[in-house]
Specification:
By secondary structure, the chain is α/β, with parallel strands linked by helices. The protein has eleven helices and 17 strands. The chain folds into two domains: 178 residues, Medium-chain alcohol dehydrogenases, catalytic domain (Quinone Oxidoreductase, Chain A, domain 1), CATH 3.90.180.10; 137 residues, NAD(P)-binding Rossmann-like Domain (Rossmann fold, 3-Layer(aba) Sandwich). The radius of gyration is 20 Å and the shape is globular. The model has no long low-confidence stretch (mean pLDDT 97).
């Protein structure tokens, strides 16, 4: 079977080629792509600003925010059938190395693959993709394809709150640094608990979106002293939960100032490869608990159930600002790269 598939060869070198697909192995599933989001990490790889995309070892097919329809299953696949609506994990662990057997996060896997970032784990920016069964997840038939493509993004916000022993409840004041797709996903998760949510972002359009999706207060960190404003909004206690969802250096540094005593800190914004000066001593005197998560673990099925149960409250597809057909992929990346302030989520449709 032939497939028109996108390959990133290097910075700003994205090509669509027709390839011959191999037969799925016994544990693999052939999926026809239906929708695929362009993530900020895809943009940074395209721009040559991130080492996450491994075109240094060969061209790869981007797209870790995808949904599709099962076309064919390998002889050993028991949990899926043609016609199923599915999406997939991004971080893929081997399950057999010493770190996997110790139960560590998939990002600790000694043989880790990352869907949509490596030649050996193609993403969803092609007419078809082949993926191993353990990393495939079915979503409800009454969802549309765009909702399915949001699962991976939403899972990061969900894991940022509930993963690694984290939690949120109605007595919490939660500060979310960054109101992009990950920050807004985190906001929706936290808001369902009844917690008070403060969304921080310098872009007015994103603050407005955060308000529409349930933020109790929004703060422009470029216009006020962030610590002063946050403490004012939390009765001078400081927040009990801080989620850093931007990867921005100033936001990361601000965590230690704005956090309240014994606050739970979740780091989910990408900043690897940079050294960010912070006042780490505040961690000691404030007794902060800090967790990070590169990818998620055992959360996709819970994410799908969670999204389904809040579906009448939140329309995640309302966050999509631009839609392009797969044939327009070059235009889609151009918008995602050049109109970052307005292109909240760019979606490719097949």
């Amino acid at each position: 079977m032939k497939s028109k598939t996108a390959f990133l060869y290097g910075p700003k070198d994205l090509r669509v080629e027709e390839i011959e697909l191999p037969e799925p192995r016994p544990n693999q599933i052939l999926v026809r792509s239906k929708a695929c989001g362009i993530c900020g990490s895809d943009v940074e790889c395209f721009e040559g600003k991130s080492a996450e995309g491994r075109y240094d070892i060969g061209p790869y097919t981007p797209g870790h925010e995808w949904s599709g329809e099962v076309v064919q299953v390998g002889s050993g696949v028991a949990g899926f059938k043609p016609g199923d609506k599915v999406t997939g994990d991004c971080v893929m662990h081997c399950g057999v190395c010493r770190n996997c057997k110790d139960g560590l996060m998939p990002s600790a896997c000694l043989n880790m693959r990352e869907g949509g970032f490596r030649p050996d784990s193609p993403g969803g920016m092609g007419e078809y993709l082949i993926i191993d069964e353990p990393f495939v997840h079915r979503f409800p038939d009454n969802w549309n394809w765009e909702e399915g493509a949001w699962v991976e993004t939403f899972s990061i916000g969900y894991f940022g709150i509930w993963g690694n022993g984290g939690y949120v409840e109605a007595s919490d004041d939660v500060v979310i640094l960054g109101a992009g797709p990950i920050g807004l996903s985190t906001l929706m998760v936290a808001k369902t608990s009844g917690a008070r949510i403060i969304s921080v972002d310098p872009l007015e359009s994103r603050r407005q979106t955060a308000s529409r999706y349930g933020a109790d207060a929004v703060v422009d960190p470029s216009a006020v002293d962030l610590k002063t404003e946050v403490f004012k909004l939390t009765d001078d206690r400081g927040p009990s939960v801080v989620i850093e969802a931007s990867g921005n250096d100033q936001a990361i540094a601000a965590i230690f100032d704005v956090a309240g005593p014994s606050a739970r800190i979740g780091l989910i914004g990408h900043s690897v490869g940079r050294k960010v000066p912070v006042e780490i001593g505040l961690t000691i005197w404030k007794t902060l608990r800090i967790t990070g998560s590169g990818g998620t673990k055992n959360i996709a099925q819970r994410t799908i159930r969670f999204m389904d149960r809040i579906r009448d409250r939140y329309d995640v597809t309302g966050l999509i600002t631009h839609r392009f057909s797969f044939d327009e992929i070059q235009d889609a990346f151009k918008v995602a790269v050049e109109e970052k302030a307005n292109a909240f989520k760019v979606m490719l449709l097949f």
